[in-house]
User: What shape does this take?
Amino acid sequence: MPPKRPTTSTPTKTANSQSTSTSTPSSNSSTAQLSKSSSSSIQSSSSSNNPQVILQQLWSNYLRRTPQRVKLIDVFMGFLVVVGVLQFVYCVLVGNYPFNAFLSGFSATVGQFVLTASLRIQTNPENKDELKTVSHERAFADFVLGSLILHFFCVNFIN
Assistant: This one.
């Protein structure tokens, strides 16, 4: 529940207008301080609840703090999501006559996404404390080996 605002009729000073109140300076300054604090809390709570502001802050924080290598992995993961959606839409609209081909392609996309997410977790500098024993080279070698095994099974599944 938001705090109740005082209901005084004394105008306060703003950046564009002057006060025309004839009250004592001490009461006028306390009213101005109360008005400033309540208006700033209302502005901060309304701006923090605005989805557009939240998304802008999230995006600018991502661009500023995320290393280039992790951004590249994120782009590849986005590409895999688009490919998976396109395969599914094609299957729904056109049909899935060679069902093995659809299953193989969709499984390859989902499997590659999972392997890429694992690579992102292992190479993210923020996870250095949790993954002390895994080097970036080891993580990439695991990714490549897992990708080769995944695609070997997918190609064999097509027939």
Observations:
- The CA atoms of residues 87 and 106 lie 7 Å apart.
- Residues 9-25, 37-43 have pLDDT under 50 and may be disordered.
- The longest helix spans residues 68-93.
- The chain is about 70% helix and 0% strand.
